[in-house]
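User: Can you model how D-fructuronic acid sits in this protein?
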Amino acid sequence: MPVITQENLALVVTKEVEQVRVTDIHTHLYPPNFGDLSLYGIDELLTYHYLVAEFFRYSTMDYEDFFNLSKTQQAELIFQTLFLEHSPVSEAQRGVLTTLKELGMDLNVRDLRVFREQINSIPAFDYVDRIFAIAGIKEVVMTNDPFDPKERQLWEMKGNKDPRFKAALRLDVLLNNYEKNYEYLNQMGFLVDKKLDENTLTEIRRFLRYWIEKTNAVYLAVSLPPDFMVPEDSYRSRILEKCVLPICRELNIPLALMIGVRRSINPRLGLAADSLGKADIRAIEYLCRTYPENKFLVTMLSRENQHELVVTARKFRNLMVFGCWWFLNNPMIVEEITNMRLENLGLSFIPQHSDARVLEHLIYKWVHARKIIADVLTKKYLDLLESGWKVTEEEIKRDIEDLFGNNFWKFVGRNV
Ligand code: FIX
Ligand code: ZN
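Assistant: Here's the modeled complex, given as structure tokens:
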């Protein structure tokens, strides 16, 4: 182990950050045996909803006409518009370049058909292994929606056989839209009523237990609008306090709150239609204070919420801050937020998740994140050296392993 000096510090930190195998705590990936739910390949990469939104910044094409095209045609249009007619400087555009480069492609070819052929020629059977290896991923946590008929059927018929894919049970439909979907629960065999009477609450708890057990979920999760408030007189607040939190306590499982999304502000954009807003931190304060036996993983979508979120985490040890979510996953904002978290919370947070929807997203999301986190960490260790505090390579490795995986597993309280 070398003595860490101001001269070799950056090299050591960068090496450790590049080598650490990541637990990616929030993705939209699925194991290969989930068939067409599991997305991969250049056409999926190019039709990522981040890029669809950016395509319409330049194109005057009718939204419907675009969405009526085949995936390949959409990908061709996006490649032409975002990569050939303009330089691909946005974070999502640059992400495609990083991905292709790491897959060994010659970017100067600039020919989508060639990229497609080269990617398709990689043998399918070890594709996941290969992408995980390039991205340095140990395991990913999925987003599993028991209200999605296709996904539900896969869990009922096949289940997940790949231990690198961990489940997280997504409760958006249950919590954000109960009144429109309760009959769906009845069809699944849970005898609930629109009115949240005692019997209904018992059945909702049975539904949660059933799905946690079936998926072996490592946490429950919900995305929430900026006006999320608890306690309040709403289905969401009552189901949360009377069903979700008690089950989390009973089974010792955290609840992830992903707060600040405003869905479908321009519905014509499909999956790309969502936006954000600043939320009220008092909902998190209430939950952490009232339910000290519950564990909350929290990420917030608005940049304006980040400072109060870290301050709140200083007050509650049952609150684990995670990730720079979605519109925050830009280098300038990731750098700012990571600095803020280190300065307020030390190393007791989870700096990033990928939100990958397409398998290869793991590559660019983590190449970009690792670079920023390594740079920010290097400056923090430099401050320590300048104050006369010596750090060893082992300590740096330990800290980095905590940030990229161990903090999550310690918080979850089990390693599955
Ligand atoms: O709700 C979520 O988990 C969001 O991350 C996604 O729904 C969103 O579309 C996304 O992919 C953001 O990165
Ligand atoms: Zn997500």
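A couple of observations from the model: The CA atoms of residues 174 and 181 lie 7 Å apart. The pocket of zinc ion (ligand 2) is lined by residues 26, 28, 143, 355 (CB under 6 Å).
User: Helpful, thanks.
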